[in-house]
Amino acid sequence: AQSVAQPEDQVNVAEGNPLTVKCTYSVSGNPYLFWYVQYPNRGLQFLLKYITGDNLVKGSYGFEAEFNKSQTSFHLKKPSALVSDSALYFCAVSEPSLYGNKLVFGAGTILRVKS
Amino acid sequence: DTEVTQTPKHLVMGMTNKKSLKCEQHMGHRAMYWYKQKAKKPPELMFVYSYEKLSINESVPSRFSPECPNSSLLNLHLHALQPEDSALYLCASSQEPSSRGDTQYFGPGTRLTVL
After folding, report:
1. Closest listed residue to residue A89, CA positions, set A48, A31, A52
2. Closest Cα to residue B33, out of B77, B74, B3?
3. Residue B103 main-chain phi, psi, to 5 deg
4. Were both Cys, which of A1, A101, B102, B107 would link to B4 (CB 3.0–4.6 Å)?
């Protein structure tokens, strides 16, 4: 079974500082990894995904993620945090099945950016 | 355009009521999903429709009944719900359900309260 882990329940960062939200994965075969963000009382918004190719994936709103096969990690990063980046972030992995692909989500990490 | 719409935004119902949630997408996506999400938790997959056919049912109680009238619409019929069913119900769609790299796009959700 495919799984992802988000080791931090919450990350606090000052506005203007770089931010990192961590994700590690456990998969059989090649990983298909995703990051989503959820603002309060809203649905999930897709940020970026890794399928194959470059280990540095660029996504929406200035976010990027670094795929590291040796460390089985897919950390989300942004060079300069904004207060508006404060939200709940989910890492996910695509799990294949006979009947279609399912997203398996991590527990989520709350990001708080303080001005 | 990657918009998935959901109605209503909020729903309050009694345990004996029958109600329906509606989801719509006009992106030509071939898969549609229902998720249930409790506060600050990851979404839990309930159902997947692939090419308008139910492909995944994650052992959801029969008081939840999905329906896919056509490729753009997805309904979730609710009957005799319990207070513990109160949650945010999210709909998502994706272009090609057989592809592991397929991105799911989420709607804003329906906040359901069962009294």
Report:
1. A48
2. B74
3. -90, 130
4. B107
Interface touch A44/B106, C-beta < 8 Å: yes
Interface of A with B (CB under 8 A): 32, 34, 36, 41-46, 49, 51, 88, 90, 94, 96-97, 99-103, 105-108, 110
Closest CA to A45 of B101, B92, B23, B22: B92
Decide: A47 and A35 in contact? Cβ < 8 Å: yes
The answer to whether the CB of B95 falls within 8 A of the CB of B77 is no
Q: What is the dihedral of CA B19, A88, A60, A84, to 10 degrees?
A: 110
Decide: B107 and B91 in contact? Cβ < 8 Å.
yes
What are A61-115's pLDDT values in tens digits? Answer: 999 999 999 999 999 999 999 999 999 999 999 988 777 778 999 999 999 999 9
